[in-house]
Amino acid sequence: MTTEMNAARAPERDVRAEMVELLQGAWRARAVHVAAELGIPDLLVDGPRTVADLAARTKTHAPTLGRLLRTLTSFGVFERLADGNTYAQSALSAVLCTNPGCAEATDALFQAAPWHWAAWGELLFTVQTGTASFDRANGSGFWELTRTNPDAQRRFNSAMSSVSEEESDAIAHAYDFSGVRELVDVAGGKGSLLRAVLRANPDIRGKLLDRPSVLSLAADLLSGQGVDDRYELVPGDFFQSVPPGADVYLIKRALHDWEADDIVRILVTIRRAMRPDSRLLVIESTLEDDAKQEWLFRDLLLLVLCGGQERAEREYRELMSRAGLRVTRSIPIGDGPLRVIEAVRE
Ligand SMILES: C[S@@+](CC[C@H](N)C(=O)[O-])C[C@H]1O[C@@H](n2cnc3c(N)ncnc32)[C@H](O)[C@@H]1O
């Protein structure tokens, strides 16, 4: 009787309304991308502005901008004031203000790029073929575009670097680098991990290897940080060679961009450079069975963009073993899925 009464009182689930929410999710995201792309959160930092003012500053069509903003406020991005024509910052829109250290702000601009959106538009192709849709949607591969197109390069590397900035100090402190004199950060991107490790360990010298096109961004981030005489930027290709003989090799969030056989090739290149007592630290988010939705989507994102994949720790161990590496330790970083998997040569 009680159960029946409770059941009667339980709010009825409206699955059709839920589905409308899901179907409009893509539009919701796109509206956020456009607001970020136009820099509207930054324009509201000093106080509310009218639609006409915002349209003049963003060179947009005022009535349409007003309709976009009105829609955005319906889910908490910006606040519409009582006159109906003036908009203010909200807690959510403030997250999108330009901030090189904020992963969400830089990610919004990465996702806003037409080539990023176009790649998701071809998700069906990815599911049919198991390969990246990016190339089909954009006529060139992700690595090619981020090498040749400065805007794509900036958006991608900024998004990566802001994630890196949020986790680099934690890695530098969670792993014991004592006794290490020289390390190489393979595919080190803009260099925030190298900067964190060098700052925390004044006796270490480091090399950052990445594609030549990325190194000027790394120089911008690393110079004038008090580590100037202790690092070197090395242009290179991790399928070919990496600097030999270092005590420690790092490779963070770079293996997940590749399919299994490519990962083994990269690891073999690093193994060749290692001394018998060198250590390799593979730093990745591991995707276990209880992974949160955010990481399930990030796994799909890797596939869509470049044919990559988030993997379970067990899978990384297998790939490292195929490359002649023996795992010695696995250290969690913080409460999330990030881990340092340490290995030596077999
Ligand atoms: C996802 S980002 C990670 C960057 C950095 N480790 C971090 O955690 O922010 C992958 C990096 O791999 C680099 N990369 C891609 N192909 C490469 C290659 N063939 N040789 C060296 N680096 C490469 C990219 O330029 C990029 O910086």
Commentary on this structure:
The model has no long low-confidence stretch (mean pLDDT 95). Helix 5 packs across helix 6 and helix 8 runs antiparallel to helix 13 (150-174). The chain has helices at residues 2-9, 15-23, 25-37, 40-43, 51-58, 62-73, 91-94, 103-112, 114-121, 123-129, 134-138, 142-148, 150-174, 192-200, 215-222, 260-273, 293-306, 313-322; strands at 49-50, 79-80, 86-88, 182-186, 205-210, 231-235, 248-252, 279-285, 325-332, 338-345. The protein starts with a helix and ends with a strand. The protein has 346 residues and is α/β, with parallel strands linked by helices. It folds into two domains: 2-98, Arc Repressor Mutant, subunit A; 125-345, Rossmann fold (3-Layer(aba) Sandwich), CATH 3.40.50.150. The longest helix is centred in the middle third of the chain and has 25 residues, at 150-174. Strands 6-5-4-7-8-10-9 form a seven-stranded mixed sheet, with helices on both faces. Bound molecules: S-adenosylmethionine (SAM). S-adenosylmethionine binds at residues 143, 160-161, 164, 187-189, 210-211, 214, 237-239, 252-254, 257.
